[in-house]
């Protein structure tokens, strides 16, 4: 019996390894309705659930001078439809245990729902109406505005929740990828319902959108259902999306000091230019970054947390968009150890060039990355999110289907090439949020300093 159990366990282990090594994106179908609406269908029969997402290619990069306009428009869509006010909408959704959401980022909006497959005839028409026939109720608009302003003000008490806004502004400027997704208290207070309606009319059109359905359904029946639901959605006028130009690499090191007078610790980001989502070397860079700062046993976490005890955690990451991206090291520490922590982070980062990555370290990271990869796409919700990102960020399934092969093909020599090409080494950009009077003078060695107060309106970096 013990031998049988051992062999059974071994067979499952071999199967598991083989499954990881051969992971590919499940089959899906893509087509376009006559009005230009893109449709993605992926059947997943394991559980009786359906995830539907509607993606609109309108992000904060379209806000112009009205920060938060795109985000706030998306939030208002779920506050009622022409046929259901907010209470009626909430009650209908809650009655069947479904979940409806809206998300907005720099480049696109996602309105979606997770539901039991048996309820799709009831919920899908509601999701359609949220997109095509929003209520734009003035009372709900004002209530949400005040709640959002309060959330923005409370967010400034948590430096980690706002530091990326300052970093993107420093790196990309106040337009394009430097846009502030959720706006600030003044820009939101100044928003009018008419502005939301104008923004909606400009961007929410079928030729600028995709419907993504993943889960337990029959594709032929779903095609008929979606066609019936969305064929009458009209394109109202021509428009042209904002083209985001790639930002040039920084010509000098700069440090933005965000003064938070009551802070007892400093939160900082150090980095520079990154990569776009479609970059061919994205997989290899993820392996290298895993070694540097993307797992608990990373260099940064080992040095700053485990060995020096300067923080509870230190990380590094690439944030990638369709046309550009950023790289940053992030952590926090006590005010009095700010300089020590920054110096150690920079010293650890420099190991990429000074010592490089050895074979044993690379082998460990490759195994870790491959093991972490398939679990990201196990549920219909996760697969729907992947298809949303593929459409919104304009990359294809080659990233998924070629992932294992690209990891396996990464060599020590290749890591040296990728480090030299993509990891910013010179003219680094710094954002530090903390008690300015206690750290200002010591920060001058890192670059030209500009200073703002965290309670100032907006995310000015000058």
Quick structural overview:
The chain is of the alpha+beta class and 462 residues long. It has 18 helices and twelve strands. A six-stranded mixed beta sheet has the order 1-2-6-3-5-4, sandwiched between helices.
Structure in words:
The protein has 462 residues and is of the alpha+beta class. The chain has helices at 2-21, 69-77, 86-95, 120-132, 138-155, 159-172, 185-190, 193-203, 219-230, 282-293, 299-307, 338-354, 359-372, 380-393, 398-401, 403-408, 412-422, 436-443, and strands at residues 29-32, 38-43, 49-56, 99-104, 109-116, 209-215, 254-259, 265-273, 315-320, 325-334, 429-434, 448-453. A six-stranded mixed sheet has the order 1-2-6-3-5-4, sandwiched between helices. The chain has a six-stranded mixed sheet with strand order 9-10-8-11-7-12, sandwiched between helices. Helix 2 (69-77) crosses helix 8 (193-203), helix 10 packs across helix 13 and helix 11 (299-307) runs antiparallel to helix 12 (338-354). The chain is globular and about 60 Å long. Mean pLDDT is 92; it is low at 1-21.
Largest sheet: 6 strands, mixed
Low-confidence stretches: 1-21
In whole angstroms, the N-to-C terminal distance is: 72 Å
| Quaternary class | single chain
Beta fraction: 15-25%
Shape: globular
Task: Return Rg in Å.
Answer: 24 Å
């Amino acid at each position: 019996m013990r031998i049988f159990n051992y062999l059974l366990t071994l067979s499952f282990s071999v199967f598991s390894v083989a499954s990881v090594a051969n992971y590919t994106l499940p089959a899906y179908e893509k087509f376009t309705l006559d009005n230009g609406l893109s449709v993605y269908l992926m059947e997943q029969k394991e559980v009786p659930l359906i995830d539907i997402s509607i993606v609109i290619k309108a992000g904060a990069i379209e806000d112009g001078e009205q920060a938060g306009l795109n985000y706030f428009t998306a939030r208002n869509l779920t506050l009622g439809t022409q046929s259901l006010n907010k209470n009626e909408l909430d009650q209908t959704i809650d009655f069947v245990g479904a979940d409806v959401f809206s998300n907005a980022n720099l480049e696109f909006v996602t309105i979606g729902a997770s539901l039991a497959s048996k309820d799709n005839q009831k919920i899908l028409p509601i999701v359609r109406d949220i997109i095509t026939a929003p209520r734009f109720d003035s009372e709900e608009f004002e209530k949400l505005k005040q709640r959002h302003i309060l959330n923005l003000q409370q967010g400034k008490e948590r430096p980690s929740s706002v530091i990326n806004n300052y970093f993107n502004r420093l790196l990309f400027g106040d337009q394009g990828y430097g846009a502030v997704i959720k706006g600030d208290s003044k820009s939101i207070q100044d928003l009018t319902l008419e502005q939301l309606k104008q923004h909606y009319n400009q961007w929410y059109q079928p030729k600028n959108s995709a419907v993504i359905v993943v889960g337990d359904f029959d594709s032929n029946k779903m095609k008929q259902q979606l066609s019936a639901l969305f064929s009458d959605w009209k394109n109202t006028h021509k428009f042209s999306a904002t083209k985001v130009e790639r930002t040039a690499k920084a010509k000098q090191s700069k440090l933005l000091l965000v003064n938070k007078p009551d802070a007892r610790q400093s939160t900082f980001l150090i980095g520079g230019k990154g990569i776009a989502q479609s970059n061919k070397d994205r997989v290899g860079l993820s392996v290298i970054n895993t070694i540097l700062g993307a797992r608990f046993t990373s260099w940064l976490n080992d040095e700053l947390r485990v060995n020096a005890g300067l923080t509870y955690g230190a990380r590094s990451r690439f944030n990638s968009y369709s046309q550009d991206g950023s790289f940053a090291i992030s952590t926090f520490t006590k005010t009095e150890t700010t300089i020590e922590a920054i110096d150690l982070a920079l010293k650890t980062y420099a190991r990429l060039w000074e010592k490089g990555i050895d074979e044993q370290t690379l082998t460990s990271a490759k195994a870790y990355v491959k093991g972490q990869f398939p679990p990201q796409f196990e549920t219909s919700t996760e697969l729907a999110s992947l298809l949303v990102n593929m459409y919104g960020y304009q990359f294809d399934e080659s990233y998924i289907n070629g992932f294992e092969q690209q990891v396996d093909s990464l060599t020590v020599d290749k890591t040296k090439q990728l480090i030299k090409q993509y990891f910013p080494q010179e003219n680094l950009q710094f954002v530090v949020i903390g008690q300015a009077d206690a750290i200002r003078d010591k920060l001058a060695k890192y670059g030209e300093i500009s200073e703002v107060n965290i309670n100032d309106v907006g995310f000015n970096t000058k």
